[in-house]
Every structure is written in structure tokens, then in C-alpha cells.
Fold each of these.
Amino acid sequence: MGLFRKRNPPDVPKKQQLMYSAPRHSGKNRLSAQPDIAETELYRRLRFAVPIIDAAIHKIIRLTGDFRLVCSDSSMQKSLDCFVKNVPVGAAMRSLQSFADVYLDSLITYGNALGEMCIDPKTRTLAALVCGDPSQVIVTPARTAGECRFFYPPENEDSEPVPLAHPERILFTAMSPPAGEIRGVSILRGLPALSDILLRIYECIGQNYDRCGNVRYAVVYKPSNDPSDRAYAGERAKTIAREWSNGMAAAAAGEVRDFVCAGDVEIKVIGAENQLLATEVPVRQLLEQIIAKLSIPPFLLGLNWSSTERMSSQQADILTSELEYYRRLLSPVLCRIGETFLGLSGSDASVNIEWSNISLKDETELAQARLWNAQAEEIERNAERMA
């Protein structure tokens, strides 16, 4: 009769896709995977992307301290002091100390520092000092030992480098150049790869907080077996959604509302069961590598890592030796500037540089040493009188 005729099963598409992929945000802070970026631009981006590296370099520059140029001719000391205090540097700075800070910043960041002494053509005096980008000048060895030649890069492949008009006015310093090389090595070499990993960790932390940190709720209404509940399930779900939205808006305005609903309603926090990964250990390991390369004690950067008093003292001694190294690189350049100023002023006097003590701790130790020496001399004098 056909009463129990079998129904044909629904047609199933042959090529039915059962899995889909959801796109993720791609990383924007990739430092080590960009071979097309010049090395100077890479270090500039590195300081911009990792604040602790930029802070450490500024700390080194400030801790290097100030100095004083001493002229062998006492009659020219006043003029030399006025020049050191008031010489224009670039377009907006003055004093030889400002030039030394910018020069040292370039030396640490790029491994090379470039400056120029600007001579006034009318008065034939040293009128200003300028710091330049060392990557914009080609440096080659000269025929005379201990001298360099400077060229502008060629405009195209067919042209040749153009030599600078006054190479005797150029100031150039290289930090730790490899054997057989003229250009130095930046202190930041080796840090882009570590910083890339560090930035990826911070990026993942931000993405996890976007997903789980901003609390979202899943409100599920389960109608009972009553036909009336199932018939009006859609309308009740819309009512629940509307009231829930009004309650969240009221909470944002500072008004507290309770959510009351009849029926089986379940409220869950999306992502509450997933814990965020602990990042303290890997982040600290990366920061330890970065700080070890920069030779800065962690407490100077606000990192409250466990350290003893003796360890802090040893770290301060290591930093002092690093600062003395930077001073040795700057001293010939600063003395050359002072002697050039004196030579253009008609004096053949020489210039020596006196650096201030690096820190208050050094001042305290020197004062304590002077006190002990004075006490020892007093004891010796009393012993001689008694004899």
C-alpha cells in the first residue's frame, strides 16, 4: 500500500568541506627576518622597538660624565672654556658636551661616529660642530698610515664616489673594528634576533589579553520540553539578549543591575578555563642576554632582580671599566677639537682633558682614601715626635 515506504536519504555533497581555518594577526615587529634593511636602520628600529635598549644607551651616555679641557697655555684657558661652553652643535644645541653626547650615541648604536668641524670662511675660526650619519659616508684607508679618506656614495652604478672637500675637518671614530677593517662594530650586534623573540612574546601576550583578558560572556537559554517554551524560544532569547545588553551598558555607566530570568539559563565566561602562559622566565632570560651585552647593572634600569650588596658593587665596577673605555674613545676627538680651536686662534698650545668622577660612589671612596691617608700621616708625625 505504500504506507511504510522508505524515504530517500538526503543527498550528501561529495566535496563537503569539514574543516576551516581562522586567520590570525601576523607579526609586525620582525627585526631579524628583514635582510633588506641596512644595518644602521636595523639598529635604529631596534632602539625604537625595545625600550630597555634605548634606556640603557641613554644611561651609558649620562654616566660617562662631563669633562674639562685644560690648555697648556694659561692665557688661552679662558677663551678655551668659553668655546667649550658656547660652541654651536648642529642647529639647536650648544656646548662641546652636547656634541660629545650625540657623538657617543652614534658610536654606541652604529659602532661608528662621524662629525665635522665647520670653519667660518670670513673669520677663519671654528664656528660650529656637526654630527652626521656614518652610513652616508664611505671610509677607506689613505696612503699615509693612520689616516682615512672620506667619500660620498655614488649617485648611480656608473658614477664614482665623490671625495669630501675638506677631509682634515672630519672627525671619525670606530669602536672595536675587526682586524683589517676600518669601520667598527655596534654594541647592538647580536641583539636583533633576541629582541625579535622578545617582541613575539609581548605580541602574544597582547593577543591573549585581547581574546581572554577582555571578559566575554556566553548566555545560553535552554527551553524545557513544554511546547509553549519551545514555540517562544526565539523571542525569549532576544529578550534575554536585550536585557543583558542593557545591563552591561548600565554597568559601564556605573549602575549595578541584577539579571533575573525564568527558565534554564546558563552564563559562562568565554575563555575562563584557559590560563595564560607564564612569561616571566623566558622574558627574564632574554633580558639577561640583552643587559649582559650592554654591560648595564639591572638595578639601574629599574629591574628588581635579586642581587647581593657585593654583587651590586662588582656590577658597578664593571660598568666603571666600560665607561672608562668610552672615555678613551672620546678623549682624542675632544682634544683635537680643542687644539684646532687654539690653532685657528693663533696658539700652538696643547690640550688635555680632565674627566669628572663617574659616580657619587667614586667620590665617597676618594674622600675616604684621603681621610685614611691624612690619619696615617698624623700618626707618623706623632710617632716621630715621640721618638
Amino acid sequence: MKISSRKRTESISMQQHASAEITTLPNGIRVVSEFVPDVHSFSLGIWIASGSRDEIEGKEGVFHFLEHLAFRRTEYRSTKALADAFEQMGAYSNAFTTKEHTCFYVRALSKDFSKVYALMAELTLSPALDLRDIEKERMIIIEEIHSCEDEPEEVIFEAGEEVLFPSHALAHSITGTIDTVSSLTRSDLLKARAEMYRPDQIVIAVAGNIPHELIVEYVASTFTMPVSKKSSKNREKPRKRKASHAMQQRTFQQGHVLLGRVTSGLLSKERHALILLNIILGEGMSSRLYQSIREKYGLGYTVYSALDLYTDSGTLYLYTACDNANIQKAKDAILHECNRLIHSAPVGKKELERAKAQVRASVIMSLESMSSRMQALGRGLLEEGHVEPFQETIQKIDAVTEEEISRVAASYCETRGWSSVLLHSHPSQH
């Protein structure tokens, strides 16, 4: 199972849907779909508003653990039988956990919808949570954590979250730690699962050649849990903090530089300007960081910026990997670009239009993917409470002015406001 990708692409959550249909069932589950008649496939996602930031202290990684166990065994099928059932239809099923939600998803042919839906309902609603499977999956997740510790970008971004969100749940690792994963019991998993599967926190999203009425009929007959008596989640918004700095030594081949800061979130008015600022800073070969760090100074091969937007806040990161001797030089060069952006070389009309063109192309090209459409439906309804037509998204991007970009740059690119993590390499001796 995948966790949210560390190769940080901005979580734009673009809404590409002019004709999405939404039905709320009596128990609170929401069904959203887009009928696409000229394809022979569909993508289905079961979205749950429980992510790593919702875990209690000491139980970090429990939702990711449950995501893994769903594919391990159900009350009716073994792991092998479950995999065989999907693959004999050519269906691809997987899942991912993020800071704010969990999603089980599948891509398959429209003619197999009823069988594929039944399998997805089975693995999400009827996992066996067998003790032997729990122990086996515990070992697999611990190996996943070890593999992340071998990846410099994983390590530095995890450290970045801890620097930006000290003592806050947004700093929790999605996989949990070896200590927390080792200590989770079957009772912990059952308790977390009961909290997770509340109907007011579930969205079923489908894009493809499947009628909305059929999806609603299937969901109503399977997701029959009663109305939740608990109130909605009360997530704590992170407080504004002063810049903080950390340094580590690790056995990697390169040094690594990460600058980060907390931004406003998905629902803020500056969201679209932030998306464009991120592209201008470090998305693509024409971006300022790429042109400076790689092309002008030759300091690093990998360089980019990354924007993650949560419901109540977000993060903007600037990253590069370089020779150990060039860590400070690379950090200074990044900060110099931020300073130029505010003071001596503000974003002009041509540069802004190029960034807008990248977003427009991304939105329009994603319309050709049923998975992208489904993800936009699910994310939009779960995180923002509505589904925005793609034309409206493009209009909002196009409406961002040079003055707005300048204001957002002034708010976030001021050099003293960046927190930092520096990883000094200390290659192992073999």
C-alpha cells in the first residue's frame, strides 16, 4: 500500500467536474460521481476522513496499519483469493493514507462494476484483522519504515514536518514509528477502526461509465452503518511559530537542504496564488530555483519546491541535494532567490502566464484520466464540502494578478521566515 508520496507535488485538489452528481444517504454517507459515457472503464474510491493527524499520541500509524490490513484478509476471502478476484478481471486496487484521510481505490472495466464494487466493499467493511495477519503486517510496515530511513528525501521532509509543527499532530509520520507500530494491539486497531468508519466521514467517489443511480443503490445496500452519535472531528489548527532550524548527520552520499514554512490552507483566498508561486519558485526547468541552483551555479542535480495544502494550513518547501561542501552555498542561493522575488525581480506578466499555462494544461490533461477525475471528486467533497467545475478552477487561476503574487511572495518568501533542516552526509565506510 502506498503512503502519500514524498516526492511532493502540490496538493492542488483540482476539481474538474461540471456534471458531478451528489447524493447524501440517510446515515450521512455521501456518494459523488461523474458519468463519462465514452469510456469503457471506471475508477472508484472509498474516502475516509481519518489520517495521521487524527491519531492519538502513542498510537501513531494506526490508520496506515488498518489500510494495510484491509488487503491482508477479509471475513470471506484469504489474501490470495482477494488478489486473484481482482486480477482475474484485470482490475487494479490499492490504497493510501495521508495526513487527513485514507482512500481505498480501484480501476477496472465498466462491465465488471458489480463484482469489483462488491470486492471493495468487502475489503473495507469486513477485514478479518486476524492476529497472525497483524503480526505479519507489523513486520512489513516496520520494513517500510526502514526503507523510508534509507531515502534522504523521506528523512528530510519528515524532519521538516517536525520543525514546522512541533508538538502538533501534523508532525506525525503517516507510517508511525517503529515503537508505536510495535506496540499497537488488535484492540487498538479495532478501536481506531470504529472511530474511522463513521458514515458522516465517508465519501464514495466514482468516475467513468457507471450511472449515478446504480452507485447509490449499491452503496445504500452495503454501507448500512447507523448514523454516528459522535460529533465531527475537532482538529487543532497549528499555531504560528518563529522559524526553527535543525541539523543532522546521516550516512548518505550527498548533503541535503530543506527550507520550509507554514502557509494558509485549502480554503484560503490566497490558495490559487500560492499554487502559482510554488510553480514559479521550483516546479519545472524554467522555475527560479532550477535556473539558479542547477543551471547557474551547478550546485545540485535535484532541486524543487513543494506545496501541500491541508484543510486549515499548509506547507511550502524548497529542497535541493548537493555535495556536503556546498550545503551552506546552496542554502544561501535559495534564500537569495527568495529575496530577489520580493525586492529586485518580482514576478512579471510573462512568468506568471507561463505558470498559469502549466496549471491549465495539468487540469485539462487530467480530465483524460478516470483516476484523476475520481480523486478530484473525492478530495473536493471530503476536504472542501463541494465539487468545483474545472472551468471555475481555471477561471480562478487566470484571475490571479501580478499584484497578488507579489503580496503572497512578500508574505512567505521573506528570508528570515524560513525554517530549515540540513542533512550533512557521512558516507558509510565499506
Amino acid sequence: MLLTPLEARKLISFCIDERCAMLAVNVDNPSVIHDCFKAAKEMDAPIIIETSRWQLEGISFGAGDPIRGIAVCIAQINIFADSKEFREIPVLYHTDHINGPDALNILSTAVKGIPFTIDGKTVHLTPSSICVDASRLSMEENTMRTNALIETSKKHDQPLTLEMEAGIDTGYTAPEVVKKLVTEVEQKHPGYLYLFAPGLGNRHGYSLEGYPDFRPENIEKSAALLKNLTGRNIGIALHGSSGLSETQLREAVRHGLTKVNWSTNNIILRSSAAREYYSVYGEKMDPKYPGFKKMATDNGVGQYVSSKFIPAVRNLITVLNSAGKAGKFVKTLL
């Protein structure tokens, strides 16, 4: 099931209570969406499927148009989510890093709902949750953009669940920065912020040396500060997990981590599997070979990549303690 923004809030709160974290997989084509559903079902786990701007503008989704990309991605997720095979798996679709001068327009359009007409009926496609990419924004621009999205949601009577970020690639986010950002939003528009991504000693991308300055106990401190500021539990989101060990991730979850973005390592894994496939089977992609069509199309490379990717997703779900949580959460919605 694809969660609405209000259901997304319930899932975030559920994960906080259960001391588990949702794996948030960045996807750039429909096969990754399928593989996320497949792994989540096998592990009975909730999962987040998310996209950044470069993925939305990719040929598999928007082909240059990020708004169209959001609509295509939501439609594809919903087809899987509404199928008998995956209907019992809670899936949250999240917009990740969307920047640029038109970012506010893109996100505002997503908040209002992107119209999609079929058989003469129009539905509006909206993400389960939205992140304001603050990597190139000042604190004032960050809060302005966040408040503007909330005002759009109120004007159009569309629910909105937000993730706010601050200083992810600059070490640790100081408590006074968190306080200023959250207060500027919460005083004007209480009740919309449900995820916060502070700097935790790691960064986006890949790190060969890992992140020795990463301190899981700071997650607990951040969560306590956010609860003190808002009066409710706010989930801590981790951007930049590809340089962290499984031990660090387990400790982070134990200290209250709620959402783990997974992009760089999953791209490396899938592209390496595809390269391996073409290296091993490339010579058979010849019309003289009887089975060349299967070898040369998605049935070949797609299946091979999935066979490497799905086990990795299953493993991360286990590390994040979210295995076995899907059915339990679904019962809370009934």
C-alpha cells in the first residue's frame, strides 16, 4: 500500500516507538521499485522509495521534466503497491534532494497534487512525504521554503508531511541551529514536521575511510531536543549511509534512528552487477546464439541485477531492525 501523508506520519511514529529504521532507497528506474517491493515483502518490512532531482529527470521517469518524473514515479509505485502481491507492504514515497531555482515550484506542484487523467477521471498524485533540500540554502531560505510549502498545503487543503535538513555535509549540526530552524517553522505552522536530518559526522557520497567521527549517541540527543521543541516525537533521518558499517548502523538504530537514505552504495551495487553480467554474457548477445533475445533484453540483465540487489536490501532491512514490522504496522491502521 502506498501511504498518504497522514499515514506516513503514523508510520514514522510507529518506527520511533519500535526502535527500528526504514530503509529509504533512491531509485532511478522501475526495476529498482520492483526490487524494493520484493525485498520488503520477503522481510515483512515497511520501506521508503525516494527520488532526487537527477533521478526524476532521468529517461525512466520524467525524461528531463522533474514534475512529470514525480507523477510517473508515483504511478509506477502505486501499480505495485495496489497489486495483490504487495498490497500488505507499507510503502512511503519520498522526494529527496530537489534543488535549483525552480525547486520550490516543483515541490509546491507536488504538494498540490499532479493531475493525471484516465478514463475521463482526474486524480492528483502526491508524495507521502517531502524533503526540503537545504544543501545550498541559508537558514533563512530553508525556513522560508519549508513554510511556503506548508502554506501551499493549507491553501489547497492537501495534507503534507515534511522532512527538514540542516548541515548534513558539515560535521555536526549545532543545537542552536536546530532550535532556530525548527522554531521558525513550528511557531508558524505546528504539526507538519515529522522527520529531521541533522549533520551527524557523516556526509553524502562514499567514504573509503568510513566515518570515524560518527557518534550514534548524538541521534538520541537530537531526538530529545526536537521533542522538547515541538512536544512530539520527530524521526531522525540519516543522509549519507554508504560510508557507515553495519555495526554503526545498528548502533544508530538503537539510539533512535528512524530513516536511512541509501543511494551511493546501491548505485555501485547495481552498476557493478550490470557490468559483470555484460562481461560474462556479452558474447552471447549475437543473433547466431539461440537465446540471444533473452540475454540482450531486460529479462537478462534485469534479472541478474535483481539477484544481486534484493539480498542486499534484505540484509539492510535486518540491520535496521525493520524486518517483521510491516504486518504489525498495518494492524494499527485497521
Amino acid sequence: MDQKKIGLFLKTLRNEKEITQEQLAEHFHVSNRTVSRWETGTNMPDISLLTEIADFYDVDVRELIEGERRNMNEEIKDVAIKMADYAGAEKGRLFKWVRVISLIGTVLMTVAIGLQCFVYEPNLFRALAIFLSFIALIAMAITTFYANGILSKLVKKRGFVIATRVIVIVLIVISVRFILVAAVVIGLGFFEAAAPFKNLSGAENYNKDYLLSEYGADLDTGFFIFPDDTDAALEVDYNSSLKTGLFDTDGHIFLTATYSDEEFKNEIDRLSKITCTVFGSMHGDSDYHTEKILYDTEMYNYPAYISIDGYDTVYEYALIDEENNRIIYALLSYPRLTDLVKYQDYLKKDKLSYKTEDGSVLEKFSIYSFSFEDGIWSEYGPEDEGRTTTGNPR
């Protein structure tokens, strides 16, 4: 078989038809490059296309194979048609399991993306995972449609082609936008990681209102254990080192206050009665949960009133030094023990407990947070102060 002769014959037939390679490629749903390879003899048309090409050029299959015009009787033509049908059936058997598996994979990936969206919580990495899964779904769907012969039928429909082009353009725009946003976010993350901590010390720098406005939302805290001011204290020592990043606030706060006997008792009484009510939604009749402060005598070197213990890697507590009428109010966010050497006495006895193991830290203790639905957490907000509890207690 002389492939170059066949290719030249195919080119002659096309020229006789007065059509371009592009027009021929569009007719047989192949690429321009494929047609060019046929006509240069680099590749031959698929056997399943021979009959269609012969009919299109009004020649016989044998003439195509031999690369020149000859007379062919109907019996030979019938054999060629049966050969093409046989080749198609053989290919169908070969790809049967590929079609089935690709169809199952497409359905499962669609369900997986739907489940991810259903329980979605705002998170850059989860958003990226869903986006990449969606791109993989598109690729698998195209493969599935092609393997099952659906794609070849759809491409003949002008409306489908236009819709596909529009979707591709939209996806490209979204992808570019997503990449740019991700680049900006990563850049800001590196910039803020390199930014220094804001350090404050001295009683005159303690300002609860400032802490609430600047860090309360990010740390999911109302700073309930911290006193509104230090006017009632005899001695005060204040130290804070905080840095707000793109995703969280890192650092620590230590306020040490020594009281008279009466004021010490009053402050202990205040701490012991702290509660926080969290509402399930912004609706006036939403369910609510009221959590009491946790009193502990085991974890620290002093008895402690704890409002947050590891929730979102934050610790908020008040240590009671009864011997000296002293209270140490503390908040730690993502504590780095190497930075807290001089505060060792105010940390947990078991330093290994600060290491976050596998699993969600949101399931740890906090009076400011409550999960009304599985995996969905509600947080305390200042706007909830004084809100009437008309829903059901949880």
C-alpha cells in the first residue's frame, strides 16, 4: 500500500470538490491537522471512516486504498462496508468497560463536589479543592461523552458549540481571577508573616475596649474574664504581644492584678458567675445555648477560671493566686512556648497539651462558641448582649 499515493489521491479528490482542508475536517469532525496528514500520506484515515469518505467523494473504497480510480462492483463495496461495521463493533467491545467506568466516575465526582459544597465552610484550601475537583469533573465528563459517542453528536449542534465556547471563556475568566486572588492572598500572607508583633507593657496600656475592637472578632472572644479596668487593683502589670495576620491573630496577653481582701473576693465572685449565650442565627426566635465558665484545679499551677481552652488554638483563663490576693488574666493564641519562657508559671503544667493533634480544634472548650448543627459553629457577638431568649435552649 502506497500511503503517499493514497494521500495525493485524497488531495486530488478534495480539490475536485473545491473545498478546503478546514471544511473537510469540519464535515468528518476531525482536526485540520488530521486531514493534512491524510493528504501527505503520514497517516491513513480510520477504517471506520473509509466508507464515509468514499461516499463523500463518490468513489469506491478500493479506489481509496489503491490511490486511483477503478471500477469496483457492489460485492466488494459491500465487503468494505461490513469491514467498517466490524471494526466499529470491535472498538465498541474494546471500550465497553472504559465507557462504563468513566460514566460511574463522572457521577461519583458530581456527588462528591455536591457534598463538599453542602457542608462548605469558608476556607482558601477547601475552595481550591472544590475548584480543582470541578475542573477534573469537566475533563472526565468530556472523556465520558466522547467514549460513549455522545460528543460527536453534540458537536454537530450549533447551539451546543456556542454554549461550550461561552462556558470555556467564563471558566478561563474565573480561573484567571481565582489565580490572581490566590496570588494576592499568598502575597499578603507572606507580608504579614514577616510583620513584627505589636508589643505593649505597663498598666497604662491596658485597654479592654481596644482589645475587643481590634482582636475580639478574630479570636472569637468577648474577653469576659478580663476586667473592664484596673482601678480596683493595688498593683498592676500588663504585657501583650500580638500580631493580626491574614487568617488569625498570634501572640499573648498577660494582665496581673493584686487586690485588697475585699476587692479580691469581689473579683473572684465576678469570675465565678461568668456565662455566655450563643444564638443559632440572627432570627429573634432562634435557639440558644448558655455556657458557664469552667473552673479547674488540675491543669495549671493555680486554680483557674477558663473561658477558652484550645478552641481554634486559643486559650483564655484567669489564674487565682489566693496566697497573694493576685489574679493573672491570660490569653494565648497559637502559643509559641519559646516566646513564653518568663511566663512558664502561668502556663499549663503539661506543655505537650498545647500541641494540636489531628482533628478539629473547634471541638475544644469555649463559652463563646457552640455547634447547633454538625460541623457548623455559631459564635458570640456583641450584638447578642441583652437579646431575648425566645427560642429553645440547647
